[in-house]
Amino acid sequence: MTLEQTPCPWCGSDPLYCRYHDEEWGVPLYNDNKLFEFLLLEGAQAGLSWITVLRKREGYRLLFDGFDVEKIARYDERKIAALKQDARIIRNDAKIRSAIRGAQIFLDLRNRGISFSDYLWQFVDGRPVQNHWHSMKQVPAVTPTAARMSKQLKKDGFNFVGPTICYAHMQATGM
Asked: Under 8 Å CB-to-CB from 167, ≥6 apart: which residues?
């Protein structure tokens, strides 16, 4: 059997994880705000497990104003201090500030006439890459495409966008 025919072993048996895997993960996503949400959450995951972030996703949705980039881009020190006190999210100052910076870059791209979707999907020429792995051992942690994406995002000012995070983001959003 191929991985396409069986559940991915990384999601285990946790119902939340399985639902995420079955309903969201790997589905091509072109919505600017949803892509931003995934990038914000992938950045929050750095050094942690995805299930940790997934369990806090609703907290992020609530505390980050439904992932409204215009609101997030205007967060001030008082909002940052409040976020750092709320256990419903990962209370890491650098990750919170990274989300705000990412929202500001998102808006800058939009103001220049570039959709966030086009910005991210350019790395795969706008089409999902279809891999055909037969075992988890074959799946790399990083690809050359993810490394190029990471380099560009960092150049443009994003944080918590290393090659591994970019590849996870690409997988999650169906790239």
From this structure: 140, 141, 142, 143, 146
Q: What is the pLDDT of residues 88-99, one digit of tens each?
A: 999 999 999 999
Cβ 150 vs Cβ 163: under 8 Å: yes
113 φψ region: left (φ > 0), alpha (ψ -120 to 50), beta (else): left
Cβ(119)–Cβ(152) under 8 Å? no
Which of the residues are catalytic? 20, 42, 50
Q: What is the DSSP letter of 139?
A: -
Closest to 69 measured CA to CA, from 93, 105, 44, 97: 105
Per-residue pLDDT tens over the stretch 103-122:
999 999 999 999 999 999 99
CB atoms within 10 A of CB 131: 12
b/e map 44-61, b = 16+ CB within 10 Å: bbbeeebbebbebbeebe
- pTM metric for this prediction: 0.90
Q: By the 8 A CB rule, do 36 and 67 touch?
A: yes
In terms of Cα–Cα distance, which of 21, 14, 23, 72 is closest to 43? 72
Residue 167 pLDDT exceeds 90: yes
